Amino acid sequence: MADSDYSIDGEDASDDEYVGPKAGSSTRAQASSGKRKAQATEIPKPRKLAWETEPSEAVANPVEAAEEIDEEVLEKSVQEREEDRKRKRLRKDTKPFQRGIIRHVVLVLDLSETMLERDMRPNRYITMIRYTQEYVREFFEQNPISQMSVLGMHDGLCIRVSELSGNPAEHIAAIQGLRFPRSLQDLPKEPKGSPSLQNALELARAMLYHTPSHGTREVIIVFGSLISLDPGDIHQTIKACVRDRIRVSIVGMSARLRICQEIVSRTNAGDESEYVIATDQELLRELLLATTTPPVIRSTEDTTTTPAESAAALMMMGFPSRVVEDVPTMCACHGNLTTGGYTCSRCSAKVCSLPVTCPSCQLTLLLSTHLARSYHHLFPLRNWVEVSWERARERGSRECVSCLSTFPEVPPEDVDDEEMQDGERLQSKMDGDAARQRRMDKEDSEEQKASESARYECRACESHFCIDCDMFCHLVLHNCPGCLSMLNPASEVQENGDVVMTG
Amino acid sequence: MNGIDGTDRQVKTDEGPPPSLLAVVLDTNPHAWAHLSSTLPLSSCIAALLIFINAHLASGNGNEVAVIASHSHRAEWLYPTPHTTSPSHRSKLNGSTSSPNGTIKIPENPNKYRPFATVEQSLLQNFSALLSSTKEAHLAATPTTLIGGALSLALSYIAKSVLRHSPVDTGIENPLSALADSESSHTARVPLTSRILIVSVSGDLANQYIPVMNSIFAAQRKRIPIDILKLAGDTVLLQQASDATGGVYMKPEQPEGLLQYLMMGFLPDATARRSLVMPSAGGVDFRAACFCHRKVVDIGFVCSVCLSIFCEPNLPDNLCLTCGSYLSLRAAQTATPALIPRKKKKKKRAGGGDSATPGGSTPAGSSTPMHL
Predict the structure, then answer these.
(1) Could you give phi then psi for residue B298, rounded to 5 degrees?
(2) Surface-to-core class of residue B352, CB atoms within 10 Å of its CB (0-12 exposed, 13-18 middle, 19+ buried)
(3) Å from A258 to nearest chain B CA?
(4) TM segments (chain A) (predicted)?
């Protein structure tokens, strides 16, 4: 579907304005750029503004089609289009990359006067504040053992909104506090002055300085301005960031800036797809939420990084058990009187919520479920492939394996196929299998399209699913109901890797 | 604001309780039922379950039910009946898929409410088909049950049913917003309330840890409570499932009273549960078991790459047993920024000549650690 509006938009977002050298990037970088592009393309309808919509797509195509083909086919093609749109949202690349599960993220908000622009409703500033709160919540849902800090670029300075911590409530309260301060003495931080990327990067670098080497160090900048008013040479700062293994992603709001492009490409090993522009608020939200997926780890880090620094590590973690108390006692984290909580496994200090770093002995405390939440990033469910009529006939599938909704019927076979000898048929089947295998390998990296038979097939268990189950399984469940319903160790390994990961 | 634009006019609110979908996952692990056969044979369990299902169907006009058997070698639909999908079927019938061989003849019985008869007939037929297809080799292959697959089937069936009940959602709902605010906006629009009941008899489910955990998180996100009725065996995994999703966990002392437990403990749907005090498991053990010795650990060592848990830091060759990456323990200690200790000398001097020269005691502030 080359003419679909999404692919056009996707190229808009990442390819069109490529300036830097792309050919020299490693395969991993390319793969991750593919992933990013996928995220850029998973854009819902509202992104398309009215004047950008080409009439040919929205109106003329079905009309033209109606002239040529009859009603039934038209209906089907509309349905296919719909399915196409849904499938676009799936991640293209579900190869299990090594991902930085333990993330240290500094979220930098632009609090300069450009944020008073009203191109987003009611203005950029309020939109950003609203979406970042949602973002923080989703970030910790997806990355429960990660740490975050929020900074703000305000009037040439970079102010600290919240400290590096793993508690989403603190960050959300701090972001809300920008507009509605909790104490009466503080004035609300209205957008003012110019932003300074250099100050922001320097402060973020300082905050991430002491983070352990096995985690990622990321800076995510929400940037609404077109200028950066820096006190010194920002290129020195970029160099320092590269040296400290900091990866910067920028979500812009106005136009693409050369300096942002440079910051992103230098800190991401030449990959510029981390620099994205939100043209309206829906897209801003999408792009923000897209960064909740843990980043891939690049095998060949820059030469400036010593290999020992990015080494994996064994982390000591405490798995505390819940205590139930009749009398409220003081918690070590806030000093509030609470009944119940968790006691640190090493020092027996009581904390009220998990995950948290023990306030007295600095041990990371969490539940085993928090670790389990990240497993689907590590063992993603592979994309399912479209099923041709031929294949559907071969399998004889009539309904979705998981929801039992019926598929459209397979059209009758061609006559010549019918007259084929048995031997020939076998031969052609084997050819078909080989071709299918090839096609599957190829499609692993290709984009997801709608299937002509409205069936989607899991490669491992060869079950057929409907589009809704396809979406549900890949976006929410992260399991293949077909593979898990059969006791077939081979397919299970391929699917979820759960043989090795038991516990 | 919302009142003005008139969108709320389209929302039609039904009086009375919303329709409720009950997905029952029946653990039919033959090994476990063999142990239980003296107290509660499988046949009487199914009889009790059928009564329970009838009670559920009878308690609301729009109520639906789905039953899945989590057997030892496959997870199978019991109700609704799936059509068989077999490649060989094609050659016989020449691709014409019009004759569904999965339909079940329902004997006409004027004294039986028809929906009850439908469920009963198809459930029993599918179940006996499942049992007769179970070979000895299947039983020998594994002592456990495919609860992960059955849960996944139930969840995707529920997801699809919810879509069917509110088809408006399909176009508007975008996946990321569903991830972000599944709680607030969607429950208001979705009229179907659904829940999962797992009647479990198997003990060890650790081999399906990840699939079951993924299912739990999906249920949590979709606000589907998972109720557990544990007739035998014990597993922390299912306790966590009910705890995380807000379901009921019951482990009756006497499995013979199955029907009573089902009727009193599990019949109320989500609407009724709001005004009831539901039994719960109490404390749930969330401690992790290490991957190397399966010991329950208080303090574990976690591989930063694959998040495997080990009970001791001394791994062979410092390689992770799961993913094989080289792990250094040195980096595990978080390097907190050290503060430069205040110089003692200065303090002494300040103590000596404090009153004499007030200007001299002004702290120079040089000892503040700077990072920039």
Answers:
(1) -90, -45
(2) exposed
(3) 26
(4) none
Q: What are the chain A neighbours of B138 within 8 Å (beta carbons)?
A: 487
Q: Tell me, what's the pLDDT at A281?
A: 83
Per-residue tokens: B195: 């829940």
CB A400 within 8 A of CB A409: no
pLDDT, tens digit (0-9, with 9 covering 90-100), for A68-115: 556 666 666 777 776 766 666 555 445 666 777 888 999 999 999 988
Q: Which of A257-266, A294-303, A420-429 has the lowest mean pLDDT?
A: A420-429
- Alpha-helical (H) ranges within A344-419 are 368-373, 375-378, 389-395, 415-418
**Length of chain B as a residue count:** 372
| Cβ neighbours around A462 below 10 Å, total | 18
Domain with CATH 3.40.50.410 in chain B: 20-286
Torsions phi, psi of A159, nearest 5? Answer: -100, 155
Q: Residue A357: in which H helix or E strand, if any? A: strand A356-357
| Residue B354 pLDDT | 44
How many other C-beta atoms can be found within 10 angstroms of the C-beta atom of residue A68? Answer: 8
Interior/surface letters B211-222, b for 16+ CB within 10 angstroms, e for the rest: bbbbbbbbbbbb
Phi, psi of B320, rounded to the nearest 5 degrees = -65, 135
Contacts of B229 (CB under 8 A, 6+ apart): B197, B198, B199, B200, B250, B252, B258, B261, B262, B265, B266
Q: How far is A21 from chain B (nearest CA, A)?
A: 30
Instruction: Tell me whether the omega of the peptide bond preceding residue A96 falls within 30 degrees of 0, making it cis.
Output: no
Overall average pLDDT of the A390-412 stretch? 83
A42, A316, A500 member nearest B299 (Cβ): A316
- Six token digits for residue A122: 């009611």
- The DSSP output letter for B154 is H
- Dihedral angle, C-alpha B89, B91, B96, B102, nearest 10 °: -10
Chain B residues within an 8 Å CB radius of A471? 175
The residue among A43, A106, A484 with the most chain B CBs within 10 A of its CB, best to mutate, is A484
- Residue A395 CA to residue A86 CA, distance in Å, equals 24
Cβ within 8 Å, pair A469-B156: yes
CA distances from B159 to A35, A344, A456, B66, B218 (A): 27, 39, 17, 13, 10
Q: Which residue has the higher pLDDT, A427 or B228?
A: B228
pLDDT of B188 reads: 44
Residue B22 has pLDDT above 90, yes or no: yes
Q: Report the residue from A319, A378, A403 with minimal CB separation from B157.
A: A403
In whole angstroms, what is the distance from residue B334 CA to residue A252 CA?
33
Mean pLDDT of B313-342: 69
Main-chain dihedrals φ then ψ at residue A89, nearest 5 degrees = -75, -20
**Fold topology of B20-286:** Rossmann fold (3.40.50)
Cα A428 from Cα A423, distance rounded (Å): 9
3-state SS, residue A243: helix
Across the range B116-131, mean pLDDT stands at 90
How far apart (Å, rounded) are the C-alpha atoms in residues A199 and A102?
Answer: 25
Please say whether the structural domain A385-413+422-485 has been given the CATH code 3.30.40.10: yes
CA dihedral over A458, A463, A467, A471, signed as positive or negative: negative
Q: Which residue has the higher pLDDT, A261 or A356?
A: A261
Domain with CATH 3.40.50.410 in chain A: 94-297
Q: Which residues of A224-249 are buried (b: 16+ CB within 10 A; e: fewer)?
A: bbeebbbeeebeebbeebbebbbbbb
Of A203, A412, A468, the CB nearest to B160: A468
The reported pTM is: 0.70
Asked if CATH classification 3.40.50.410 holds for the domain at A94-297, the reply, yes or no, is yes
CA-nearest of A367, A361, A368 to A342 is A367
ipTM of the modeled complex: 0.74
Amino acid at B264: M
